[in-house]
Amino acid sequence: MPSVMHMALASYGSSAAPNVVQRTTTGGAARTTSTVLAWAAATAGNLIVVEFICEMNAAAPTTPAGYSLWPSGNFVGGTWTTSIFYKLAAGGETGVTITHGNNVTCSAMREFGSTSGTIDFVAPSTGTSVNPDPPSLTPAGGAKNYLWVAGASYITTSVNAFSSGYLDGVTGASTSAGHLSRVSSAERAAAAAVEDPGTLTLAASSAWAAFTYAVSPA
pTM of the predicted model, to two decimals? Predict the structure, then answer.
């Protein structure tokens, strides 16, 4: 069983599940050495999470100043890396620039409100099929009203369905003919001590790297 990685940016509390204030996606049309993500001004104390996919034509991404990188690092799956960057908002942030080698990228960003700022991760799963399978996650804090996020990075194809019970799915998709990378993820609010999301369904078979994380309530 994969080990759980618990990243505390603030202490736990007991309340309703976190909410998503905003979601944005990006998709590169060509190889560049930096990616600019833009969104509406973030609220102080909210949690910003960026799922970032980067082609391996050149150097992997550098963690932006003020952000943390999930414990799996720039995780290699297929011909790309999957990175998750996160931070507590100081307030007013309207985006971030991520530097990397001459690569095609895509991303999905969420701003979470009503959260303590604690996020739990588990090592991603990998495979090649039409059904990316996000790994089971047991947060270190025990049963709480988490907002769970399950998704996957993959290439060339598209997503037909997200994990059962997961809503508000988003996809960041590059449009470069040289590297059609994708990241798709969705959310589920549930009071539980463990979550094993169902599979996503792709339109065609692809190599994939699937992930699960949990955002704690305030």
Answer: 0.93
